[in-house]
Amino acid sequence: MKKLLFLLIFTLAGCDSQSEIYGHWKNINSDCDVLCSFSIKKQDTAYSDAVVIFDKGPFYKAASGPLIQDKNNKNRYLVRGATGDFLLVLKNGRFFGTNNNFIYEKISEE
User: Fold this and answer.
1) pTM of the complete model
2) If one looks up domain 18-108 in CATH, what number appears?
């Protein structure tokens, strides 16, 4: 009985392994003028169970889209934007984007 209870708790705790990524993220560069902040929310899509919604600014609607986790590298994510994809790598509690020009820190939970 104890083994069954342990397996049930372990399974329930492991169901949402991406919970640390949900919330609002902001670029640490104060001079940022494009794709400066975004939210990651739970939302079922054809590609994943999470979506990235960039805040207002140039290209924010085109960059927003489903967040897909790499099956081989669990710290690498792809945002499927309407006009192209945006790669994010989670490292040391921060998301790093292209050429490390985009470095995001989590500022609040969702």
Assistant:
1) 0.75
2) 2.40.128
